[in-house]
Amino acid sequence: MTSLDAIWQPFTLGEIQLSHRLAMAPMTRNRADSEGVPGDLISEYYRQRASLGLIISEGAQPSAVGQGYMNTPGIYTPEHIAGWSKVADAVHENGGHLFIQLMHAGRLAHQDNNTEGQLPVAPSAISAEQEIYTPNGKEIAPVPHELSTAEIQDVIAEFRHAAASAVAAGADGVEIHSANGYLLHQFLAPNANQRTDEYGGSVENRARIVIEVAKAISEEIGAHRTGIRISPAFPLGGLDEGDVTAVRAQYEYLVSELAKLNLVYLHVHHLGDDELLASLRQTWPTAVLVVRYGRERENIAADVEAGLADIAPLGRMALANPDIVERLRTGAELNDVDPATLYAGGAHGYTDYPTLNQA
């Protein structure tokens, strides 16, 4: 037995048959056009990596104000649907399955980056105080507009519409982004959510919008097409979710409520609280995906082998190695990531990483 044997077993994810336990993790790459439409270059990028089986796309904004960064794709206009349709076709033609991640950036944004010049929105009018790249260079994220209770319902409707748009584009499902410092994660963090209505204050209230978004999307496209990503205690975007006790209370409640919806998977971006991860695994009725920063190749299968996860999504390894599945199967060397091209436009550092055959 090698340490990677556990990932070569087949797995049924909802109505999808996967031949192994690897997946492609969502990664922002900033290659869409100025209107958020994914073009041929993005289709080629995902086509190259389709052997990963389950492709979770970069975050796509569900509305103009949901856009955080320049040249991120949207999934709410007919043009977006047409662009993503080509991506879905490219993935399917090469044996993969596409889940589009729905990412509303919330306060981690700048008005110069979205197509309508709208001030970012958030649970409370508190700046993320993070630097955001804009057409004018680096800017500090502004103080966002605090969503009214009625406007929260509009956001939920935007997520629902985006999910329907993703399925219309031919995607196999969507991943709700409730992690990594973005809008839904902001509602979970007391230092970003200081509301006094039904969406703030208590553990239950802070989780409310996440649960309502998940309900709306699963009603719209089916629970078997709906996954969700969380990142307990991740401080990205200036968030502070409190001490270990507070974090566990928040996420054990959130996941126990989401579990009732029978969503197709829970995707945990894991920071290291293994006791919490084990608790969430016990609570969750369907598939669990676990990704960790800086994981070495010999540890890729560790969470699957330990029974903590069913699928192991790959980030930078997949980014730099379009044939990562073949490389792992054969023990071949891996390409290194070129950090200078992660968020730069064009094919360089995007679709020109060599395969084993090309090397």
From TrEMBL:
Pfam families on file: Oxidored_FMN
Keyword annotations of the record: Oxidoreductase
Listed GO CC annotations: cytosol
Presence of keyword Oxidoreductase: yes
Listed Gene3D superfamilies: Aldolase class I
Necessary cofactors: FMN
Matches recorded under CDD domains: OYE_like_FMN (cd02933)
Membership in a protein family: Belongs to the NADH:flavin oxidoreductase/NADH oxidase family.
The protein's name: NADH:flavin oxidoreductase
